[in-house]
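Revision sheet: structure tokens.
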Amino acid sequence: MKYDRFEQLPVWNAAINLAVQTYAFTSKPIFKGQFSLRDQIERAAVSISSNIAEGFERGTTQELLTFLYIARGSAGEARSLLSLVERLPTFSDLKSAAESISRQLRGWADSLQNSGIKGQRYLTEKTRRADKAAHDRQEFLERLRRIREAGSGKPGGTPVGAR
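Predicted:
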């Protein structure tokens, strides 16, 4: 699936949810007086979705990859900080949410590294025309295949002249 906006990305939505849950978690009384720890956990959680968004908006695959790895680093930081408070009596499942986001970001980065996609910034009218021509060619070949199958009497088609 092609995403036009970072808000459509499942991993960005998971990261936003993690940040919301993190703020709810750090607002608990157990964090009273723990200003620096609370601030660091919140900033790490917010950094994940922010870096996904920034990388998506940059327009090149290389920049997107850079920011995906930064976001993954922030997910690791959040996991580390949440591990620190894991033994607190009010600990929630935020750490597993951060782990899931980290895995999603790794998978996305891997798929981008193994693709020929350069990124939105490199799209020009010439490349758009070439992509459209390739798509139209594929559709034409598919139509030819269906006509050929129909003409040969294969299942799924009416032989030519049998109408």
